[in-house]
Amino acid sequence: MATARSIIQKVASWRWVVPTLVVAGLLFALLADYRPILNGYIQFVLITIGINIILCASLNLVNGYMGEFSVGHAGFMSLGAYASAVFTTKWMPDNAVAFFPSVVFAGLVAACVGFLLALLSFKTRGDYLAIITLAFLMIVKSAFENIPYVGGPRGLLGIDKSTTLAWTFFWVVVTLWVIRNLVYSKFGRAITAIREDEIAANAMGVRTREAKIIAFVVSSFFGGVAGALFAHQLQFINPSTFDIVKSTEILVMVYLGGIASLGGSILGAVIFTVLSQVLQPLGTWRMVILPLLLVLLMLFRPRGIMGMKELTWFLPKNELDPTRKP
Amino acid sequence: MKYLPLLAAVVSVAGLIGCGEKAPPSVKIGLNAELTGEMPAVGASSKNAAELFVEQLNASGGLTIDGAKMPISLNVGDNGAKADQAAAIAQRLISQDEVLAMIGPNASTCAIPASEIAESLKCTMISPWSTNPKTTVDATTGKSKDYVFRACFIDTFQARVLAKFVLGTLNAKTSAVLYDVASEAPNGQATLFKEVFEKNGGQVVGFETYTTGDRDFSAQLTKIKAANPEVIFLPAYYGDVPLIIEQARRLGITAQFVGSDAWSSPDIIKLGGANVEGAYFCNHYSTQIATPIAEKFVADYKAKYGQEPDDVAALTFDSMGLLAQAINAAGKVDRQAVRDALAAIPKYDGVTGTMQFEPGSGDPIKSAVILQIKDGKFVWVANAQP
Amino acid sequence: MDFAYIVQQAINALQLGSIYALIALGYSMVYGVLVMINFAHGDLFMLGAFLCFLIVSSLAAFTLPFFLVLLLVMVGIGLLGALIERLAYRPLRGGPRVSAIITALGCGLVIANLTLVRFPYPQPMPQLFTSVSYHVYGVTITSLQILIIGVAVVLMLGLDFLIRKTSYGMAMRAISFDVKTVPLMGIPVNRIITLTFFIGAGLGGAAGMLYGTAYPVIAPSMGILVGWKAFIAAVIGGIGSIRGAVLGGFFLGAVEVTAVSLPNVPSTYRDLISYSLLLIILIFKPHGFLGKAPNQKV
Q: Do the interacting molecules here have an ipTM over 0.85?
């Protein structure tokens, strides 16, 4: 057993582990898309996990690392979903190369609104900001319900099924890479400082305003990306899909996996998605057990399973424990 | 701790792949129903009728596949009356459970996205109750979908029937409409009714909306009261109707209420009590003008479940019947063959009438009935032919 | 658009506002003493209506007076609220605030879904009160509306009296002022907090029963949206402030009714108008109408 353990440890600490996993994952995803090695349902679940990881990681940036309480993330998802759907169904229909630009476009649209939200956050904090994000979510939902161009309350149909496993994997990697690099940069330190004590940070000369803007913009960008992927997986979106219940689900994933932890975001997304699917036969009891587990988790691990801790693969070299064997 | 996420991922994927039961061979049919959420009575009716059909069919041996008899089994999924969940259930039933065909969803909000999935995965889908035209029509090309059918009439027909009833039998020239803007069927019915009503000389004096989950309609009703219509058209699901009528009466509105087939659950009487007395609505069939086939169904359903079947149950039973006839005609467990057989059915005698599909369309030619809520029961008033 | 129409809509707004205000009070009270948003509150509200249903259906042999059932519901839901505080919130009281909020969210979901398991179908609310409609100069007001507004006002006045004139009230205010010093003064902090939850939940339960009486079809999902709206109302008024909660509740009711009743605006714009207005208010008054900016020590 000791040798097995040390082999695993050796492999895990190899410098090229993460890049190899990424390449292997991408190859596997491409293979699964073009050859029937996985059935459609498993593909569907894996893509859903990927989308949830992106949602979770991006919300974690604002809620976990920056310590805010945003409940409006489904709003960014909605903006991204609609932006990309309009792009591919109305502006560039039947165009195979339209998907990638539509996802980027979706992220940008969401990011613009995120920027506005960041500006609002300068004057308000804490619970008042939570309300602003809630109001924002309701406004987005209601706005889309009143715009006939995007189908109003009945939503948009006929979106292409462009979200493949490969694309999902690609965006998951991009999201994690960007957020990880952000968090361990100087802006990341500023973001964490805001969480700990904003006024003190300001007093010490930390540029909190810039950090807030970056955090919100990045978070909303990837929220929009996730929305775009979601729209092209489900092939149908309507405003009520992106409601407070959806936002609550994302929140649960974040706090389940652990705040301020990318590994936690992955974990939370995986556990939540898999449990949601696997517990389907329980019917309504599923939604009694899941939140009950969450409550129990909060009582014993208030910061989530991996709260404030991180997978060693994500930590940059100078963060690693110096007493560890290399 | 480091390996926990990896471990969790491996375990979950293994669990998913391993998730499969080894059951005796049977023909698998999927049921995508609204068991929880906004309209649980609809899902329950559908499930009850489907299970009754399976029981009766299996008692006689089942379907004839490749010359031998094979029982059928039902894979039930709950779509919670939500669009995205309906799509996910459709995916699961068709890809994971590998059903031969899918019955449902019933609510148009769910049926439309599920139909997109069924169409793209080339699996036959029959919606028992969805009346919105979009369910069987491709949104981008405007042509009929190949794999999606329904067992009921569509809203363009229903709107015409109702408008004519209001203008003719009720002799009302002015009407107002109050509907749920976020729900497909009521939304479509409201718009179509307004179109037909105005085209035939009526006047729609109020066109108000609310959103799913709302309970207070006093502001909208006050607006409608000011316009003083003779009839108020309420294409709402059975949970909303009692509240709306109660609040309207409280405000002193004396207009006649008329509804669509969305009213059809008997729960509407349980929830509405005296308030819903006297209101009319359109429906797919009536237990009172039953054919022998319908009478047998009503009796069997009542014996097994203790209550009379509503239209959702009747239509689900017919959907299963249509499917069974198609599978028997095709003679093999092949999705394409079943689809072709279904489209080519010359005549099917069902609980809700005689049906066949128009060539190139998934919509059957059906007639409708007008019912009135009287003495706490649904009472037949008139028939309406296409 | 005549005077009668305006008055009618104003009455509608008062009724809706009273209910929002009662629920918002529960949020504000808890926030005032614990600086915590009790997200389970909306579901306690919903449970109030269902508890009424259960009481009436299990004691169907007796004709129960309205106010007795109201009292029973308030006590019942109050006890449940206190129980949740004891089991789920107290252990987290020193820890990160966010965990308490998520726990509250989880508790709310558990309550809502347990109710859904027991009552998968919407239920008709038992009619304990026969309403009489009065038509005055083209305006309709029912005795039910008068009852709802009346009960709400009485409860609010009662709460105000409790806060300002009793020692318990003084203790609650002390805790919201400085929770660390209070136990040094010999005040049983835990007991006061539990009492606060009891009262707050009781008010929420009362609101639920009144809501069920006004809109007699009850379903487990009704807590979620109303709960979040009342939370917004509490914040608009200034969370932590009792008077702010009342103000916020009536304000939200007025905004929602006005948005629908505007003559040439289709009612689909209701939510858009309401929430945009709320957002604008929060931008200009970030701590709500009556809220105070918390003093932060660095």
A: no
